[in-house]
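can u do me a favor
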């Protein structure tokens, strides 16, 4: 009976190659947002993004009954996925580009878009809930 070492070698090489491709692709997948907890409540913070959505939102920074920071626009509270690097600090939101935190009631306008959340961020929202993803570019806080 002939030995087919070449066939086994090719299968092993193919298996290693497929495993390497899967590992590389898994490394490209975006990580989930993080829930930043603080004595002042919760803010859900996005991972760094390379693309932005172009819908606009304007309203005032607000906190819901669960302590989650978002934006109230047209009397509707919108859960916000804040830009990467945002944190709660001193009774307000400290977002990238701000020197001081801004508190509840502060006017805010910016770009982004609505999407169904792909992760559970209790107590702020559950997977599938609609959230506004705030783009890190062009956000204005405290305008007149």
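np, heres the sequence
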């Amino acid at each position: 009976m002939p030995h087919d070492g070449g066939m086994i070698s090719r299968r092993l090489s193919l298996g290693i190659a497929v495993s390497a491709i899967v590992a590389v692709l898994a490394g490209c997948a975006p990580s989930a947002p993080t829930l930043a907890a603080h004595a002042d409540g919760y803010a859900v913070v996005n991972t760094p993004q390379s693309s932005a959505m172009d819908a606009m939102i304007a309203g005032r920074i607000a906190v819901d009954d669960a302590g989650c920071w978002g934006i109230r626009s047209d009397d509707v509270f919108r859960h916000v996925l804040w830009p990467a690097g945002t944190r709660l600090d001193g009774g307000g939101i400290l977002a990238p580009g701000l020197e001081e935190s801004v508190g509840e009631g502060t006017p805010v306008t910016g770009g982004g878009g609505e999407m169904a959340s792909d992760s559970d961020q209790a107590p702020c929202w559950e997977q599938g809930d609609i959230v506004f993803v705030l783009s890190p570019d062009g956000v204005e806080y405290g305008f007149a």
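The longest helix spans residues 5-28. hope that helps!!
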